[in-house]
Amino acid sequence: MIFLATNKRDITIDFVVLELQKRGVPYLRLNTEDITEWQIEFPNGEPSHATFAHDDRSFCLSEFTAAYYRRPLTPEPQGSFDQPVREYIVSEWSAILRSLWTALDSRWLNSPYAIQKAEDKPRQIAIARAAGLKVPETCVTNDFTAAQKFAAAQNIIAKPLRRALLEDPSGPGRVMFTSRVALNANDQDSIRLAPMIFQQEIAKQYDVRVTVVDDRAMATAIDSQKHEQTEVDWRKGSGVEVEHQKLDLPSDIANACIKVTQDLGLRYSAVDLIQDQDGQYWFLEANPNGQWAWIEQRTGHPITNAIVDALMGTIIEGLTPDQKNERQEAYDRDMAAIDSTNWGKQPAKLLEQAQRMADSEIDRRKTAETKASIYLAVLATLVPLIVTIQTGIWENKIGPAPAVLRFSLLSIAIIYSAAAGWYAFSVLRVSGFHTIGIGELATSRSKSEPPGELAKRTLQRMRKSQDAVNNKVTRIKMTHEHLLRAFGFFIALMLIDPATYTIYAIQGQAVATAPKTQKPRCDSKHKIIFNFETDSRNKRSKNSVSRSKKE
């Protein structure tokens, strides 16, 4: 199950929700401003097994295999309270959220604490330089003399260190965009108020937004230089349509952006670059929780898929030894916590929650196995088609396309189909699912608190089954990916002959309409003879050239 920490006004998270629904992945969207309406409990005071419920829904933190931190907001108490009471309520619920964030630990994309640390822009600059990226000359100061000296050497821009929005209780507030500055004596007091980033202005061709998700870097060129409003900061244009296009970054720049993201302790970041007039790339900053939905809408970059892949990547096979150790340690912690918890408190309620969680795992397993059966049925229908096409290729009974090309496409399609079949079969083969047995049910009846004991044993069996279910879900995902690729190559195989016919037809038409310059013919003795036609006077020279000798 995927945990989504967000707010109810965040449209970007809707893209992730739709993709999770499409893939059949269970999730919980928690709009944190509404957390005050939930009931929270930390068994034995430990947040790692926190339970929270709202209406008829209840969850345990241990259910979640991954979590996405998408700009959650401050809790909002329901009802009318005096300001001190209201602040107290907000503070306590905020403390609960921090405990939940800590308990989710390595499951985050990105950890809120990593985000907070990564927002340090001077640190970003140092990391970007170390990664090999060019960075404009920079001065961070509230010293007017230092700023003026820096400005005297070049044209400069200014931008805030952290907060770009000046909130106004009586109005919409004001955004502090990156701006050109020319310092004079009147600026002394304002500069002294707070430190600011001053940077050398680089004359640019366009801005670049690089969306990094794990080891993927998706670059977008933003044509900011067509409009005066957007020349310095492309976000500033009001009512201006700024063109966005996919961009193929040089591999060293793309890898550097990925390295910057990783060195900041992140799995996701929105890296802002510019390309100067000479084609060189310059680093500006990295936003650890930047918006990305509009990029996907305008360019088609598969950012949503990349994020969901990353969230599901916590359960993908091929883990490193360290990751396997971490998984085993997490398993041991969970089982120890279950063993040490006093399950005698509200046993009936705990049993109900445990059964609901166990049912959720059963549903995940059944969904994966049902999809596997469907995929295997689809693959079975491909077998006669594969045999027919392969026979036609070997007997040269189909199409004008080169047999080598046709056979290559067919081979690749068969390989992907076989891989998809193997993954689908392995879903049905993977075992390790545990349920409560008759013996355990009978044993729990002998305990002082039978519901509590049964809840404990149910959670133990569910936790033992969780990794097996995760493997099934992962293999279904791999089945889906390989089957899509197989279909892609089959479609290419189906289109190759019509495409070849079309090419031949176009070439034939071109030959038919082209002016004739020579006519080859064969004589009775199988000599190839060329009749050369001359200029516009239609003078013919019968200069025959023999291309072969008598045998």
In total, the number of domains comes to: 4
Helix content: 40-55%
* CATH homologous superfamily designation of the largest domain: ATP-grasp fold, B domain
- Can you list the strand order of the major beta sheet? 16-15-14-17-18
How many E-type strands?
20
CATH class of the largest domain, anyone? Alpha Beta
For the terminal residues, how far apart are their CA atoms?
82 Å
Query: Which structural class is indicated by helix and strand composition?
Result: alpha+beta
Low-confidence stretches are 314-318, 517-551
Q: Could you name the CATH topology of the largest domain?
A: D-amino Acid Aminotransferase, Chain A, domain 1
Describe the sheet with the most strands. Answer: 5 strands, antiparallel
Mean pLDDT value: 78
Strand content: 15-25%
Count of discrete alpha- or pi-helical segments spanning 4 or more residues: 14
Rg calc:
33 Å
Shape, per Cα inertia axes:
flat
Would you identify the CATH architecture of the largest domain? 2-Layer Sandwich
Structure summary:
This protein has 551 residues and is α+β, with helices and mostly antiparallel strands. The protein contains 14 helices and 20 strands.
Q: Describe it for me?
A:
- This protein is an alpha+beta fold and about 550 residues long.
- It has four domains: about 110 residues, Rossmann fold (3-Layer(aba) Sandwich), CATH 3.40.50; about 180 residues, D-amino Acid Aminotransferase, Chain A, domain 1 (2-Layer Sandwich), CATH 3.30.470; about 160 residues; about 35 residues, no CATH class.
- Helix 1 packs across helix 9, helix 10 runs antiparallel to helix 14 and helix 13 packs antiparallel against helix 14.
- The C terminus is likely disordered.
